[in-house]
Amino acid sequence: MPGARVVAEHLSRRYGQVLALDDVSFEVEPGELLALTGPSGSGKTTLLQLIGSLDRPTSGSIGVDDIAVEQLSNPTHFRRSIVGFVFQLHYLLPALSLQQNVELPMMAAHVSRQERAERSRELLKEVGLEGRAQDHPSELSGGERQRVAIARALGGFPRLILADEPTGSLDTAASHRVWKLLGDVRDRRGTTVIVASHDPSLTEHVDREIHIVDGRLVPPPDRASPAGGGRTAAARHES
Amino acid sequence: MTTLLQTLSSVRYSPGRTFLTALGAALGIATIVALLAVGNGARHSAGDFVHLGASDLALFQKDAADPTTSVLPTSLIPEVRRTPGIADATPLVLLVEDVPKDPSAIVFGAQPNSFYTSRLVFGAGHMFSAADQIVVGDGLASQLHLAVGDQLKVHRRPFQVVGIYHIGIAYQDSGAFIPLRVAQSILGRQGETTLIGVKLAVGTRPAAVEGTLSHRYPGIATIGTPEEAARLGANGQLISNAALVIAVLALVIGGIGVLNTMMMAVIERRSEFALLSAVGWSGPQIAFRVVMEGVVTTVIGAALGLLLGVIGAHFLIDALGAQQFVAPRVTAWDLGRALLVGVLIGVLGGLYPAWRAAHLSPAQILAQR
Ligand SMILES: Nc1ncnc2c1ncn2[C@@H]1O[C@H](COP(=O)(O)OP(=O)(O)OP(=O)(O)O)[C@@H](O)[C@H]1O
Ligand SMILES: [Mg+2]
Question: Is B13 within 8 Å of chain A by CB?
Fold first, then answer.
């Protein structure tokens, strides 16, 4: 499944008096791994929710390939099979096994029981949790839970992964693994990935960074990093 | 179906609360089952009541509070006998709660040569032939350890037991017969009877005779079938109305219990339903899941309630002191109805919480800062 192209044009989102996003426009290439940075309260979560159809913009438009997200009257198909979410908190259901958790989006999409089982085992293997399908979330470390959440996000073969501070509550080692996993997903599947993050180590892992302050896009601060911004997925695939 | 399995596993979130809710539904359903069982039993026995001995029809006073409180003049009998299609008619007086040692035993006042008494089969002794003689059913005899020659008091009068019979009708085998006139004098009602038993001529349709009689005697209820017997008597009506009210209350209370539990579950697990919405579950899919949780809870409750209800029916009958009149009967249809009610409670109680869960907006809930 190739990655999606994301095009945001003049996006604004107002909550009462607060202008959480103010005329934001940008493009993300298919297969790009993009970091969305900015101080707390700057509008990162708001932006991801608009792209993922969890919220609607006050004005402006979001295109994910040929889908006008802000116009979707019934976003269930979009959520099931175009986009995959990873939140800061894993939101795994404690009563369900890891396999059942990973299967949740597939259930909504009426995937057969057998195919669900195959896919979820495959996905758990992909995130390094092979053989733990019947475990429950309480038996896992924070980093492992976040990897299950990534497996869940991949269940519908999405073209776009939206991750909101996926390493926000993880230690350095676990964060590193999650970053690596997101990079692998992009490399192997070509999925477009947008990650909102405070994590200072992110520049090692991403192609490009966009920075947002008080709801407006501004140039990213200079980071002393060998990777720099701007390495596109295309460039990476060529190398 | 898989969603159902999911549902079952999510009942594990709070097994204690699930159990208590199920118990609430169970008590409601148990009440319904017990009332149905007692009602059935009573109706069945009322049927026996009509066909005491060999009568085809029984005439009672209309609007009597209860069949045993009916009063009819015996002077009607010759006239009834002359009615075309009627072979014989005979009075029967019922004395209730007049045997101090066993208040549930009924004492029947009958003529010794009537069709009521001619069918009694004596295991010991013989039919009464004097005013102070009594014949008792084998059920009552074994309960009170009576033998021929013993004494039995009925309404403070001593009687001598002269025979022990069996006839195969619950009321009569656990009761006793005394002469009609003696029973009338105990009641202080000379010339009156509780009911008049009617034997039809061979080949007569009961409905035709019932029509004639009810036309001629508007104040008389003619009972030919157990169903009609169940309709007779204001007390019976009162009980069945009360049962209906209690059943509806039980339903409402069970439903509110489920509503409350599911509402709490939805509030507590907002993030779960928001997550489901974020990964593409539709509103109806989420709502179905919530309703099914309620239904699973109340079906567990229904199973428990059936058990409690069947046990409860026996206790209820004991408490009413009505063992001799009523044997609880639980039919498959009763069980089916109770299960149906369980499902209904679950669905009704789950609807509003389901609607709420389906309309949660995922954005704010999942944006943890
Ligand atoms: N539902 C809401 N109602 C009112 N204001 C909101 C709501 N959601 C967000 N905001 C406001 O919009 C602004 C942007 O919030 P947002 O959550 O997008 O920031 P963020 O960049 O994700 O911050 P953080 O790094 O702390 O997660 C903030 O001022 C916030 O208070
Ligand atoms: Mg945020």
Answer: yes
